[in-house]
TrEMBL record:
PANTHER family associated with the record: EARP AND GARP COMPLEX-INTERACTING PROTEIN 1, WD-REPEAT PROTEIN
Pfam families: Beta-prop_EIPR1 (PF23609)
Key words, A-Z: Repeat, WD repeat
The WD repeat ranges on this chain: 137-173
SMART domains per record: WD40 (SM00320)
Family label: Belongs to the WD repeat EIPR1 family.
Domain EIPR1-like beta-propeller: 32-212
Presence of the UniProt keyword Repeat in the record: yes
GN (gene name): Eipr1
UniProt name for this protein: EIPR1 protein
Repeat recorded as keyword: yes
Any one Gene Ontology BP term: protein ubiquitination
Region described as Disordered: 222-243
Length: 243
Protein backbone atom coordinates (compact mmCIF):
# COMPACT_ATOMS: atom_id res chain seq x y z
CA UNK A 1 0.00 0.00 0.00
CA UNK A 2 1.67 3.27 -1.22
CA UNK A 3 4.98 1.37 -1.52
CA UNK A 4 4.80 0.43 2.18
CA UNK A 5 4.27 -3.05 3.58
CA UNK A 6 1.13 -3.10 5.74
CA UNK A 7 0.23 -6.15 7.81
CA UNK A 8 -3.45 -6.73 8.59
CA UNK A 9 -5.66 -9.41 10.14
CA UNK A 10 -8.94 -11.00 9.15
CA UNK A 11 -11.24 -13.82 10.26
CA UNK A 12 -12.20 -16.51 7.75
CA UNK A 13 -14.56 -19.47 7.86
CA UNK A 14 -13.31 -22.82 6.63
CA UNK A 15 -15.67 -24.98 4.55
CA UNK A 16 -17.71 -27.46 6.58
CA UNK A 17 -16.15 -30.37 4.68
CA UNK A 18 -12.73 -29.45 6.11
CA UNK A 19 -13.85 -29.22 9.74
CA UNK A 20 -12.28 -31.65 12.19
CA UNK A 21 -14.08 -34.97 12.28
CA UNK A 22 -14.68 -35.18 8.56
CA UNK A 23 -13.31 -38.41 7.12
CA UNK A 24 -12.36 -37.02 3.74
CA UNK A 25 -8.65 -37.23 3.02
CA UNK A 26 -6.98 -34.14 1.49
CA UNK A 27 -6.49 -35.98 -1.81
CA UNK A 28 -10.24 -36.49 -2.25
CA UNK A 29 -11.02 -32.78 -2.20
CA UNK A 30 -8.11 -31.63 -4.38
CA UNK A 31 -10.25 -31.91 -7.52
CA UNK A 32 -12.69 -29.20 -6.36
CA UNK A 33 -10.76 -26.45 -4.56
CA UNK A 34 -12.61 -25.01 -1.57
CA UNK A 35 -12.71 -21.26 -1.02
CA UNK A 36 -12.61 -19.66 2.40
CA UNK A 37 -15.39 -17.28 3.39
CA UNK A 38 -14.16 -13.87 4.62
CA UNK A 39 -16.14 -13.02 7.76
CA UNK A 40 -14.57 -9.75 8.83
CA UNK A 41 -11.40 -7.69 8.99
CA UNK A 42 -9.88 -6.80 12.35
CA UNK A 43 -9.53 -3.12 11.55
CA UNK A 44 -6.22 -1.82 12.82
CA UNK A 45 -5.93 1.45 10.88
CA UNK A 46 -5.75 3.47 14.10
CA UNK A 47 -3.26 1.18 15.83
CA UNK A 48 -0.57 0.17 13.35
CA UNK A 49 0.69 -3.06 11.83
CA UNK A 50 -0.55 -6.40 13.14
CA UNK A 51 2.16 -8.57 14.66
CA UNK A 52 0.05 -11.39 16.05
CA UNK A 53 -3.49 -12.79 16.32
CA UNK A 54 -4.54 -15.03 19.25
CA UNK A 55 -7.78 -16.94 19.71
CA UNK A 56 -9.06 -17.41 23.24
CA UNK A 57 -7.74 -20.93 24.08
CA UNK A 58 -10.99 -22.08 25.72
CA UNK A 59 -14.52 -20.74 25.46
CA UNK A 60 -16.82 -20.31 22.49
CA UNK A 61 -14.27 -18.82 20.09
CA UNK A 62 -15.82 -15.35 20.21
CA UNK A 63 -12.78 -13.56 21.62
CA UNK A 64 -9.61 -12.67 19.74
CA UNK A 65 -6.61 -10.61 20.83
CA UNK A 66 -4.40 -8.88 18.31
CA UNK A 67 -1.06 -7.14 18.84
CA UNK A 68 -0.64 -4.09 16.60
CA UNK A 69 2.64 -2.19 16.99
CA UNK A 70 2.50 -1.23 20.70
CA UNK A 71 -1.23 -1.91 21.22
CA UNK A 72 -3.06 -4.89 22.70
CA UNK A 73 -6.58 -5.11 21.25
CA UNK A 74 -9.32 -7.42 22.55
CA UNK A 75 -12.03 -8.15 19.96
CA UNK A 76 -15.49 -9.61 20.42
CA UNK A 77 -16.73 -11.52 17.37
CA UNK A 78 -20.48 -11.03 17.09
CA UNK A 79 -23.33 -12.03 14.81
CA UNK A 80 -21.96 -15.43 13.73
CA UNK A 81 -18.45 -13.97 13.71
CA UNK A 82 -19.33 -11.69 10.79
CA UNK A 83 -18.54 -8.57 12.80
CA UNK A 84 -15.63 -7.75 15.14
CA UNK A 85 -16.17 -5.18 17.89
CA UNK A 86 -13.19 -3.76 19.79
CA UNK A 87 -14.10 -4.38 23.43
CA UNK A 88 -10.94 -3.13 25.17
CA UNK A 89 -7.37 -2.11 24.48
CA UNK A 90 -4.18 -0.90 26.08
CA UNK A 91 -0.90 0.56 24.87
CA UNK A 92 2.67 -0.24 25.81
CA UNK A 93 4.20 2.89 27.35
CA UNK A 94 7.89 3.74 27.29
CA UNK A 95 10.69 5.49 25.46
CA UNK A 96 11.16 5.05 21.74
CA UNK A 97 8.96 3.23 19.26
CA UNK A 98 7.98 0.12 21.17
CA UNK A 99 6.54 -2.73 19.11
CA UNK A 100 5.27 -6.19 20.04
CA UNK A 101 6.87 -9.09 18.19
CA UNK A 102 4.70 -11.98 19.40
CA UNK A 103 2.27 -13.11 22.08
CA UNK A 104 0.49 -16.10 23.56
CA UNK A 105 -2.85 -16.47 25.36
CA UNK A 106 -2.58 -18.62 28.49
CA UNK A 107 -5.01 -21.58 28.70
CA UNK A 108 -4.87 -21.32 32.52
CA UNK A 109 -6.39 -18.88 35.06
CA UNK A 110 -9.75 -19.00 33.28
CA UNK A 111 -8.08 -17.53 30.17
CA UNK A 112 -7.54 -14.13 31.80
CA UNK A 113 -3.81 -13.81 31.07
CA UNK A 114 -1.67 -13.26 28.01
CA UNK A 115 2.09 -12.95 27.59
CA UNK A 116 3.67 -10.62 25.04
CA UNK A 117 7.19 -10.09 23.74
CA UNK A 118 8.67 -6.75 22.72
CA UNK A 119 12.37 -6.39 21.99
CA UNK A 120 14.14 -8.36 24.79
CA UNK A 121 11.26 -8.11 27.28
CA UNK A 122 8.41 -10.50 28.14
CA UNK A 123 5.32 -9.07 29.84
CA UNK A 124 2.25 -10.67 31.38
CA UNK A 125 -1.15 -8.95 31.14
CA UNK A 126 -4.54 -9.44 32.78
CA UNK A 127 -7.13 -9.32 29.99
CA UNK A 128 -9.88 -8.17 32.39
CA UNK A 129 -8.15 -4.96 33.47
CA UNK A 130 -5.64 -4.79 30.57
CA UNK A 131 -2.95 -4.14 33.18
CA UNK A 132 0.56 -5.54 33.34
CA UNK A 133 0.98 -8.30 35.97
CA UNK A 134 4.63 -9.27 35.49
CA UNK A 135 7.62 -8.14 33.48
CA UNK A 136 10.79 -10.07 32.58
CA UNK A 137 13.27 -7.46 31.39
CA UNK A 138 16.19 -8.74 29.33
CA UNK A 139 14.59 -12.18 29.19
CA UNK A 140 16.90 -12.82 26.23
CA UNK A 141 20.12 -11.11 25.20
CA UNK A 142 18.52 -10.17 21.87
CA UNK A 143 15.03 -10.02 20.34
CA UNK A 144 12.41 -12.42 21.77
CA UNK A 145 10.83 -14.27 18.81
CA UNK A 146 8.19 -16.57 20.26
CA UNK A 147 6.39 -17.71 23.44
CA UNK A 148 4.32 -20.71 24.48
CA UNK A 149 2.55 -21.69 27.71
CA UNK A 150 2.81 -25.18 29.15
CA UNK A 151 -0.69 -26.57 28.43
CA UNK A 152 -0.74 -28.78 31.56
CA UNK A 153 1.21 -26.79 34.13
CA UNK A 154 0.16 -23.38 35.39
CA UNK A 155 2.65 -20.48 35.48
CA UNK A 156 5.15 -22.18 33.11
CA UNK A 157 6.13 -20.26 30.00
CA UNK A 158 8.72 -21.00 27.29
CA UNK A 159 10.46 -18.31 25.25
CA UNK A 160 13.04 -18.23 22.46
CA UNK A 161 15.00 -15.55 20.69
CA UNK A 162 17.89 -14.22 18.67
CA UNK A 163 20.43 -15.11 21.39
CA UNK A 164 20.04 -18.74 20.16
CA UNK A 165 18.50 -19.77 23.50
CA UNK A 166 15.23 -21.32 24.64
CA UNK A 167 14.26 -20.39 28.20
CA UNK A 168 11.63 -21.70 30.58
CA UNK A 169 10.06 -19.37 33.13
CA UNK A 170 7.90 -19.66 36.24
CA UNK A 171 5.85 -16.46 36.02
CA UNK A 172 5.53 -16.30 39.83
CA UNK A 173 9.28 -15.69 40.13
CA UNK A 174 10.78 -14.11 37.04
CA UNK A 175 14.24 -13.18 38.32
CA UNK A 176 15.84 -16.28 36.79
CA UNK A 177 14.70 -18.81 34.17
CA UNK A 178 13.88 -22.28 35.52
CA UNK A 179 15.93 -23.82 32.72
CA UNK A 180 17.81 -22.73 29.58
CA UNK A 181 18.45 -24.71 26.38
CA UNK A 182 21.37 -23.79 24.14
CA UNK A 183 21.07 -26.36 21.34
CA UNK A 184 20.68 -23.97 18.39
CA UNK A 185 23.45 -22.01 16.68
CA UNK A 186 21.30 -19.21 15.22
CA UNK A 187 18.08 -17.30 15.97
CA UNK A 188 15.31 -19.48 17.43
CA UNK A 189 12.07 -18.46 15.71
CA UNK A 190 9.51 -20.79 17.26
CA UNK A 191 8.92 -22.79 20.43
CA UNK A 192 5.93 -25.13 20.99
CA UNK A 193 4.85 -27.50 23.73
CA UNK A 194 3.32 -30.86 22.84
CA UNK A 195 -0.28 -30.56 24.06
CA UNK A 196 -0.50 -34.08 25.48
CA UNK A 197 3.05 -34.67 26.71
CA UNK A 198 4.37 -31.34 27.94
CA UNK A 199 7.91 -32.65 28.45
CA UNK A 200 8.27 -32.57 24.64
CA UNK A 201 9.33 -29.16 23.28
CA UNK A 202 9.72 -28.40 19.57
CA UNK A 203 11.93 -25.52 18.43
CA UNK A 204 12.71 -24.18 14.96
CA UNK A 205 15.68 -21.99 14.10
CA UNK A 206 17.40 -20.32 11.15
CA UNK A 207 20.31 -22.67 11.76
CA UNK A 208 18.11 -24.88 9.48
CA UNK A 209 17.29 -27.30 12.28
CA UNK A 210 14.15 -28.37 14.08
CA UNK A 211 14.92 -29.83 17.51
CA UNK A 212 12.65 -31.96 19.68
CA UNK A 213 13.76 -31.72 23.33
CA UNK A 214 12.67 -33.91 26.24
CA UNK A 215 12.30 -31.68 29.30
CA UNK A 216 11.04 -34.21 31.84
CA UNK A 217 12.35 -32.39 34.93
CA UNK A 218 10.09 -29.36 34.40
CA UNK A 219 7.07 -31.22 32.98
CA UNK A 220 3.77 -31.98 34.69
CA UNK A 221 4.91 -35.61 35.07
CA UNK A 222 8.54 -35.42 36.27
CA UNK A 223 8.33 -38.97 37.62
CA UNK A 224 6.51 -40.53 34.67
CA UNK A 225 2.91 -41.71 34.71
CA UNK A 226 1.50 -42.60 38.12
CA UNK A 227 0.70 -46.30 38.43
CA UNK A 228 -2.87 -47.26 39.30
CA UNK A 229 -3.47 -48.87 42.70
CA UNK A 230 -5.08 -51.83 40.95
CA UNK A 231 -1.92 -52.49 38.96
CA UNK A 232 0.15 -52.32 42.14
CA UNK A 233 -2.02 -54.80 44.02
CA UNK A 234 -1.82 -57.24 41.09
CA UNK A 235 1.96 -57.03 41.13
CA UNK A 236 2.08 -57.51 44.90
CA UNK A 237 0.14 -60.73 44.65
CA UNK A 238 2.55 -62.08 42.05
CA UNK A 239 5.89 -60.72 43.29
CA UNK A 240 5.63 -59.43 46.84
CA UNK A 241 9.43 -59.49 47.23
CA UNK A 242 9.87 -57.02 44.33
CA UNK A 243 7.63 -54.36 45.81
Amino acid sequence: SDSKVVTCAAVWRMPKELESGSHESPDDSSSNTQTLELLCHLDNTAHGNMACVMWEPMGDGKKVITLADNNILLWDLQESSSKAVLSSSTALEGKGQLKFTSGRWSPHHNCTQIATANDTTIRGWDTRSMRQIYCIENAHGQLVRDLDFNPNKQYYLASCGDDCKVKFWDTRNVTEPVKTLEEHSHWVWNVRYNHSHDQLILTGSSDSRVILSNMVSISSEPFGHMVDDDELSDQEDQHPEEK
